[in-house]
Amino acid sequence: MEKGLKALERAVALVAVGFMLAIMLVVTADVAMRYLFNSPFAWAYDLIALYLMAGVFYFVLSDAHRENAHVGIDILHARMGPRARRAADLVTAGVSLVMFSLIVYIGAERAWENFANDEVLAGNIPWPMWLSAIIVPIGSAFLVLRLALQFVRNLFGPAAAKAPVSATEGITHRHAEELAQ
């Protein structure tokens, strides 16, 4: 399951990279059109704000969590014993799993309502709202899978899994490998 999920996370993260590239190209072209021809793109802001930025954020959530790249406060975590750390990681993964599962459910429901009602953004271009809304549950669903895997690993312990159980252990393990080389 780990390898499959990691491959999916990487694929979705590559989509996010493509979205970031598209943002840079659209902004550059929009600025050039604005200052060279006094004719900016009317659609640039909507495309970037509704679709591309949402994709950049939500499509890297799970991959960033797997890599322990999210900002975390580990002052207490680092001072805990192994059992307390494992319990804290279990609670954190469990609460996060519940919260992001709700985000997936509510987000999918909202996207379906947007699609069923054929909702569009009022403006020069009638952008379909469901395409923007579906990004949230898709990106969050990958994080839910990652959190479920983390929860199970924390529940059954490090002996049951090859990957580190917590962010602190992962960092320590990586630094030890780097020092050994």
Can you walk me through this structure?
76% of the residues lie in helices and 0% in strands. The model is unreliable at 159-173 (pLDDT under 50). The protein contains 8 helices and no strands. α2 packs parallel to α7.
Set down the secondary structure blueprint.
Layout (H helix, E strand, L loop, with lengths): L1 H36 L6 H15 L2 H6 L8 H5 L2 H35 L12 H5 L1 H22 L10 H14 L1
Give a quick set of tags describing it.
single chain, 181 residues, mainly alpha, 8 helices, 0% strand, elongated
Average pLDDT reading: 87
Largest sheet properties: none
Form type: elongated
Q: What's the helix-strand series?
A: HHHHHHHH
Total strands: 0
Amino-to-carboxy terminus distance: 29 Å
Task: Briefly note the structural class of the backbone.
Answer: mainly alpha
Tally of helical segments: 8
Helix content: over 70%
Q: What fraction of residues sit in β-strands?
A: under 5%
Estimated radius of gyration:
20 Å
Q: Which residues form runs of ≥5 with pLDDT under 50? A: 159-173
What's the quick description here?
With 181 residues, the protein is an all-alpha fold. Helix content is 76%, strand content 0%. The longest helix has 36 residues, at 2-37.
